[in-house]
Design brief:
Length: 198
């Protein structure tokens, strides 16, 4: 599933974003801006807009590469037949007794509803458990974000309850439903998940 720093599913390829991806990334982020930003933290004042500023995007790519080198995060662009269609990230990786990663994802509105994100999440879970040897991954989703919740529901991730005012999203402290999977659950369900999605 892993070849030359890329991860592969049935239809998707996941790989780290590069500065050469800026035009595709910028087009998607600009076109889908309103659809995406309601679920994201606000951009800080006086901070360049990564969606339109190539230098800011280059800095973002460098930061993600540094996280990869340190083993604290693995950010992936999602590509289908060479077309960029979203991102999925394993972030804030903690070792020691926790062995956990937080998973975040988004997809181009044009590609939504085609099963690409569940497939990408299974690819990322395989990487987290089989290659990085993490014990747990977790996804936190605003309760009314039905599209994102459908992804974890399709995969049967365990609902661990709602964390009140968990993250500041678009200027408001929002509750988040927390979903998780442990290595034991992955081991038990790996064949089913990979058979269905990969």
């Amino acid at each position: 599933m892993e070849r030359a720093n890329a991860l592969f599913g049935r239809r998707v390829m996941l790989r780290g974003l590069q500065v050469s991806d800026f035009e595709q990334w910028s087009e998607v982020r600009t076109r889908c801006g309103e659809w995406l930003t309601r679920w994201e933290p606000q951009r800080l004042l006086n901070q360049p807009d990564v969606a339109t500023d190539r230098d800011a995007f280059a800095i973002r790519c460098s930061a993600r590469q540094r996280e990869r080198q340190l083993g604290t995060g693995y950010g992936f662009g999602i590509f289908v037949d060479g077309s960029f269609c979203g991102e999925i990230n394993l972030s804030s990786i903690q070792r020691g007794p926790f062995q956990n990663a937080y998973v975040g994802y988004w997809i181009d509105e044009r590609w939504a509803g085609q099963g690409l994100m569940p497939e990408s999440l299974v690819v990322a879970a395989h990487h987290a458990f089989e290659d990085l040897h993490l014990h747990r991954i977790q996804v936190s989703i605003i309760p009314r974000n039905h599209a994102s919740r459908r992804v974890v529901d399709k995969l049967g991730l365990r609902n661990e309850g709602t964390a009140l005012r968990y993250l500041e999203i678009n200027g408001v402290w929002e509750d988040h439903v927390r979903y998780a999977m442990t290595a034991e659950e992955w081991e038990e369900r790996r064949g089913e998940l990979e058979g269905a999605w990969l």
